[in-house]
Specification:
heterodimer, A: two-stranded antiparallel ribbon, two-stranded antiparallel sheet, about 5% strand, B: four-stranded mixed beta sheet, 2 helices, about 35% strand
Chain lengths: ~375, ~70
């Protein structure tokens, strides 16, 4: 039975089911209270967690997002049930940390992870096209490196406890969310009173949806970066059929819920600075490709015991701290006195994206070997 | 028998290594992987290329045997 289920989830219908589930549940989460065109956004939600912990002080984006916690725990449950929980680590963790950091800086320049790019497009936000084009470009560059022998070396099997670090960290976050302690006067834990951070579905709904998605995604290996990489690298359309299902189902769900609004500006929590939408996601896409997974996939890997993926996730959370502390994140378009004011990046943000791209290129050029897994 | 050791390597390395071995044309090929993900990815590649695939547990992981 277990083997038959495994084969189903590994099939094309399995991945389509996972994509369709995300496409259906994300807009429903938005209906239930999550921010507009942000039913789910792994980058934004990790950024909100960084804010809640006080790693940055942008008051409008601070909340411990139960979805992130549940993605890891849902994946953990699936991995344990199907005997795939496998503690492993040691494939250049420090590099993965910095890839995570700059992936976050790139994603926040655009204002979203690949999942949100798809959800934004499904909600009619045409800026997402620039973001997705950037994502594809970044991944295509990553594929060139892969073809030239880029790899971060082998991970090793390790102590069981190593695999439990990220799930336990997520449980700790859940405890902080429920108890809402305030460690100092006017200090963390922070919860936004206005802005996107204040918009959220009821905790139990977020947790339930997160667990379902975490479970399905662990079984099917759903990965947005991988979907594009596999098409470019091998002409393999398996994973991208899941991404296609996400986009189509999210579009239809948004239409049904009256959440579809076509245009460039103003769109919710989005800017129409086209060049930086493109370059921000190029950076993110390249960093995901070099690290072997999109932000969602890294969470699911962390849930099944991959310590290196866990390091990438922590890198993203720290990156969110830098991003907002140094004013690197994109500023959404706004309407001032009836006139649209285009947002975008500060000069610092632009430099951060360029530095990130240079760093990723250096990693790609220098971490190659003739025989995979050997240094 | 050609052996490809893809244990400990993450996506997409196991599939890339298997593909390189397949392109060389010497069969059978034995691909060692350590996760179900890699096992299924190598299986899918082989099926797409019309090869015979057999997977069995081996040590801490799996041995995927590919043949024409």
């Amino acid at each position: 039975m277990s083997e038959r289920l495994t084969r189903f989830f590994a099939s094309r219908w399995g991945i389509i089911l996972a994509g369709a589930a995300i496409g259906l549940l994300a807009p429903l989460l938005q209906k239930a209270g999550n921010p507009p065109n942000m039913g789910i956004c792994v980058a934004c939600f990790e950024r909100d967690i960084a804010g809640a912990l006080g790693l940055h002080r942008a008051a409008v984006v601070q909340y411990i997002r139960p979805e992130i916690i549940a993605f890891v725990l849902g994946s953990l449950i699936a991995a344990l049930l199907f005997k795939e929980f496998k503690p492993r680590a040691g494939s250049a963790p420090i590099v993965r940390f910095f890839l995570g950091m700059f992936a976050m800086i790139g994603a926040l320049a655009f204002l979203g992870c690949p999942w949100r790019a798809l959800l934004r497009l499904a909600g009619g936000d045409l800026n997402a096209i620039l973001g997705l084009a950037g994502l594809v470009t970044g991944i295509a560059v990553g594929v060139l490196f892969l073809k030239a022998g880029y790899n971060l070396g082998r991970a090793q099997r390790t102590h069981t406890a190593v695999g439990w670090v990220m799930p336990l960290f997520m449980v700790s976050l859940l405890v902080l969310l429920i108890l809402r302690p305030q460690f100092t006067k006017d200090g963390a834990i922070f919860f936004s009173k206005t802005g996107p951070g204040s918009l959220h579905a009821p905790i139990l709904i977020s947790l339930a949806v997160g667990l379902v998605i975490g479970f399905l995604a662990q079984r099917t290996r759903f990965c947005t970066m991988g979907s594009i990489r596999d098409v470019i690298l091998m002409g393999d359309t398996h994973l991208i059929s899941g991404v296609g299902a996400l986009l189509v189902v999210a579009f239809l769900t948004n239409l049904a819920l009256g959440q579809f609004k076509l245009g460039f500006s103003p769109q919710p929590v989005a800017h129409s600075s086209h060049l930086w939408n493109f370059l921000g996601m190029s950076l993110a896409g390249l960093a995901f490709a070099l690290a072997g997974g999109c932000p969602g996939r890294q969470l699911f890997l962390a849930g099944e015991g991959d310590g290196d993926a866990g390091v990438f996730v922590i890198g993203m959370i720290v990156g969110a701290g830098f991003s907002h502390n140094f004013a690197l994140a994109g500023t959404p378009d706004s309407v001032v006195d009836g006139v649209i004011k285009v947002g975008g990046l500060t000069t610092y943000g632009q430099w951060a994206v360029i530095i990130g791209l240079v760093l990723c290129l250096l990693i790609g050029f220098t971490m190659r070997s003739k025989k995979a897994g050997e240094v | 028998m050609v052996t490809v050791d893809a244990r400990g390597l993450s996506c997409p390395q196991p599939v890339m290594l298997a593909k390189q071995a397949i392109d060389k044309g010497e069969f059978p090929i034995e691909v060692l992987v350590d996760t179900v993900t890699s096992r299924e990815n190598v299986r899918r590649l082989a099926q797409r290329l019309g090869l015979k695939v057999q997977a069995e547990p081996s040590g801490d992981g799996f041995k995927v045997t590919l043949d024409k």
